[in-house]
User: Fold these one by one.
Assistant:
Number 1:
Amino acid sequence: MNDNIEETLLIVDDIPANVSMLLDFLSHAGFKVLVAKDGTAAIQKAEYALPDLILLDVMMPGMDGFEVCDILKSKEKTKDIPIIFMTALSETVDKVKGFSLGAVDYITKPIQHEEALARVTAHLKLRKLQKQLEEEVIFRKEYADEVEQRNMELNAFARTVAHDLKNPLNGVIGLSDLLLAECPKEQKWYEETGYKYLQMISDSGRKMVEIIDALLLLARSSQQNDIPISPIDMSVLVNQIVNKRLVDMRDEFKADIQFPDTWPVALGYMPWIEEVWVNYLTNALKYGGQPPQLELGANIQADGMIRFWVRDNGPGLTEEAQSQLFTPFTRLHRERADGHGLGLSIVQQVIEKLGGKAGVDSIVGQGSLFYFTLPAKL
């Protein structure tokens, strides 16, 4: 017996004896069975009842089974209903034509009950699995669309909050720096307490701005797909970063930075590459030797990529530390300088979006070399 009594079959045959035999057997097997004696009635009942499967006789007067099948497969409501053709063993039937019209199987007359039941059950299971798959695809698409919409809303919210936070933070930093510059240095309060607190306020404000900038870059890189790629003059870009954007840090750490005589021209997106260099150089200044001795360079690889790098004279990294470097929110040097743990993971994300790779080569006691690759300009 069939356990699913809700499944409906439609038998289409113009011979009452054939219909009666199948009707009794399949009803007893647990199916709800409908009957149509010609093609026109079959199409009407199929559209109205939407059976789970149709057993369709090929040779019928007037509209034959092939014509009925063709019409049913052309209609949106009935096109997915499985159709099994029934044909007499003595009849010469173009089975290829039946399959090309969308039929799933043939049963020969006189029909063997157990064979018919097995074929019907098999195709009903296949159809059920197909429906489940279609529903799963629809669900996943709807879920993906919802996630994408939520991500867009979250990114928009993050950008709004970040920009709103930067304005008061810049005010805090500016006022702190103004007080640091104007406070009378001979006062004991200034020397022992005030200067320290003002410096902490200023430093904390700058660190918060760095975090906000990193989050904004992460939001932009995750959303932006149509990236404007162009040739990058690394000589101009790196010199501007070192001598303007990071000049205070360079002087504070008394760093010696060596540049190559020439830079190969790479293809990339200038705002992102600037942030990559800033991240690598900032880390090298913070975590390199004391004082930092940095060497910058670039090599053209055999695969047509350019490998840009920063080598420091720091203590180097273990293999375990290297494996964690590009993991978000991981900090390896808490005792020397605070970080927000996002920088290197963002570097990796934006470089991969530009078709390159980011990584590190390091040996304990021999310093580290941080690199990223970009396509060379042909």
Note: The chain has three domains: 8-111, 132-223, 226-378.
Number 2:
Amino acid sequence: MKPKIIILARDCDSTNVVYNYLKKYFDINAVVFETPIPRKKQFLNRAKRLGYISAVSQVIFFLCIAPIIKRFSRKRKAEIFKQYELDETGPPKEIIKRIRYANTEEGRSVIRELKPDLVLVNGTRIISKKTLESVPATFINIHTGITPAFRGVHGGYWAMATGKKDLFGTTVHYVDTGVDTGGIIEQVFIEPPKQDNFYTYPYLQYASVLPVLKNVIQSFVDGNKPLPKSPVTTESELWFHPTVFQWLRNLRRTYLFVLICSFLQF
């Protein structure tokens, strides 16, 4: 009997890319979309953890800088999608389930009803022990960063920003109750071209990991659960969204300086 595979994820283009790639090789029984945290609550959570100055600076970056980066990176995104044959078309409506939060009885109930054997996680909030134990399934996560050195968000960007290009890549790992602390299944390392930046790094990371992710899932389908691998580094740090000041300071290392110069010349 084929194992039942579901995707538990945030409703975004990266999830669509993953779904469209995997559906060519496996039966994806359902895609469960988790509702994002309201922006006000996100801000208050960040302020509580990082302080109000950092939280406000992050908001300034995402409201004022990120849209500009996105606008002038559209051509590069299209090139990546063409090169790697990526597809961001959404899953068919009949297999989509929507929940407010996986760590609620409603969320656990939906997951239990689907009776999955393998749950592929992408972009959700931290999953609690109670939720992980609510079904006899294995949870694996796609993380755009090399763990444990770059846990949290924007792992590729922070690898470049801190001068650690050798740790630019993507991790497929088992899910536990920590932030990207689960056992490593596979890691893919690449060096991004100089025309890439904060906005396009994740697309490269997903594109490069998809064939490896396919092999990982095939192992589960074949009844061979991979053993966790040793990390390539003992460094471990949790990273957050950049502030506008951090972004400005890291321009040269993250190659966006090249994009800006090209635009000014144009």
Note: The longest strand covers residues 28-34.
Number 3:
Amino acid sequence: MANVLRAPAHPATSVGVMLEEEFLEPLGITQDGLAKAMGVTSETVKELCSNRRRVTVETATLLAEVLGTTPAFWLNLQRLNDGHGG
């Protein structure tokens, strides 16, 4: 019998949790520091971290440049959180 693709057993990690727990805290970067490095307002980063702002292509590119990831990483994470993961 063919393998059946199933939804993950747990919800996708939110962009805000990923930013805070996997990047900012371990790297010792504040939200204000990230905003400055990205060239955006502190409010923009605060809204990303609280999941009140979606990741756009522009935002994904800035996050990737500053945090050493790829834009696709952030866009795919947003897509998973939007419920369009597959």
Note: The mean pLDDT is 91.
